[in-house]
Amino acid sequence: MATLSNATKNALALGSFDTKAELYCFEIARPEVGPNDVSIHIQYCGMCHSDCHACNGDWGLDSWPIAPGHEIAGVVTAIGSSVSKFKVGEKVGVGCMVESCRNCDMCQDGLEQHCPNMIQTYGSIFPKGKGDNMKDAEGNHTNGGYSTAITVNEHFVFHIPEGMDMKYAGILLCAGITTYSPLNRHILQKGGGKGKKVAIVGFGGLGQMAIKLAKAMGVDTVTILSRSDKKKEQASKLGCEYIAYSNEDSVKEATRSFDVVLDTVSAPHDIASLLPVLKVGGAYVLLGAVGKPFEISAMSLIFNRYAIEGSLIGGVPETQEMLDFCAKHQIVPEYRVIDAKEANQQFKAMMNGESLADRCVIDISTLKNLEVVDSKLENGPAQ
Ligand code: NAP
Ligand code: ZN
């Protein structure tokens, strides 16, 4: 049974000690609330592929140990003297950001995710003298939601709408907003989904959210492009069309079919071969955070007036709007709750490209059943 050994280290966390990305249980320090902060007892945290990218070195992070997790749902345990939005006992969520400058054009426009000083929920290094209330015990980097508690400025905390189950609420704060934001721009803000066709490449955690959101926006046809036939049955249960894109003929048949493509694939893949499924003037939105450059011929863009764009989560106002949209349309992600001891297995599955569409959500109350370590255990990661 885990017990906390050190007064300054007041929370348990699950995280990685090096780029092997094996998850161990260790202790971290979470600060008392500052005037504008909210302390949260975390109940559930969704597992996003970004958690793997951060822990396995894909993104160049080299500061250990690190607890990932940015799909956080929990209950407020304390508030600072100036906090106005939240009360103790309220159900809240935290997504991918915990701070930004609040002054720049981006922050003023509610696009905090593009603020040059945005601080991510995990893996962000604070500039010297800043963020004292959120650094890890050694003052290195932020630690995320695979932990029992977190302290965050109220600006980056969200109300969980009445009736929304805490088990899946956190998923909306990354997978939800990341897919909502481009669909909002391309569908909702352009007259709605009637007559539109949307394709989603990669049927994982983001992919399943994109299907549900696109359907709720009234999109006529939502199609999943997955590598093989394996996930066809699940796609048809969600009422969407399916293309196994390893079959070149199926891709050819879909030439010039879609208004928008959301690409959620987590590993390098041949984007050029998928572009022709877009109608003339269509947009190919890259969501998968793949660092490796890819090649696209200018000719395929010119002759079809294609746009290729990226999209990064969403700002604070759009995130609250997305939560309310999901509550209104009763959108429930595909998910399963797992015990903390199963997290390593899911991490491996994601890194091997074998994750299923259901988002895994860690029941954070099970963290206390793991052995607490100071460094990696000889006999392997948490189980
Ligand atoms: P996930 O659940 O692991 O799903 C990724 C999907 O990509 C898999 O289900 C699989 O789909 C496909 N895939 C995996 N390996 C592949 C390979 N080697 N070749 C081709 N396809 C492969 O991941 P996720 O949580 O949805 O995240 C997806 C990506 O989005 C990650 O890179 C993550 O970091 C990124 N992300 C970006 C943002 C943003 O703001 N832009 C926010 C959150 C996450 P099929 O089995 O159907 O082929
Ligand atoms: Zn994420």
* Distance from first to last alpha carbon: 13 Å
SS-derived structural category: alpha/beta
Bound molecules: NADP nicotinamide-adenine-dinucleotide phosphate, zinc ion
What characteristic shape results from the CA principal axes? Answer: globular
Radius of gyration: 21 Å
Oligomer: single chain
> Residue share in helices?
10-25%
Task: Outline the biggest β-sheet.
Answer: 7 strands, mixed
Provide a count of the helices: 9
How many E strands? 17
Mean pLDDT: 93
Low-confidence stretches are 1-7
Strand content: 15-25%
Order of helices and strands: EEEHEEEHEEEHEHEHEHEEHEHEHE
How would you describe this structure in keywords?
383 residues, seven-stranded mixed beta sheet, six-stranded parallel beta sheet, binds zinc ion
Topology:
Layout (H helix, E strand, L loop, with lengths): L10 E6 L6 E6 L8 E10 L2 H7 L16 E8 L11 E4 L2 E3 L5 H4 L10 E2 L28 E5 L3 E3 L6 H21 L10 E5 L3 H12 L4 E6 L5 H6 L3 E4 L3 H6 L4 E6 L14 E9 L11 H5 L4 E4 L5 H13 L6 E5 L3 H9 L7 E5 L20
Parallel strand pairs: 10-11, 10-13, 11-12, 13-14, 14-15, 16-17
Antiparallel strand pairs: 1-2, 3-4, 3-8, 3-17, 4-5, 5-9, 6-7
Helix pairs in contact: 3-4, 3-8
Bound molecules: NADP nicotinamide-adenine-dinucleotide phosphate and zinc ion.
